[in-house]
Amino acid sequence: MSGQCRAEVEAVLHLEAELQDSTTRGDGEQLREILSPEFIEIGASGTRWDRESILDLLAGEATGEIAIHNLTGRHLSTDLIQTFWDSQIEGRWARRSSLWHREDGQWRIIFHQGTPLT
Question: What are residue 67's DSSP bridge partners?
Answer without folding.
Answer: 88
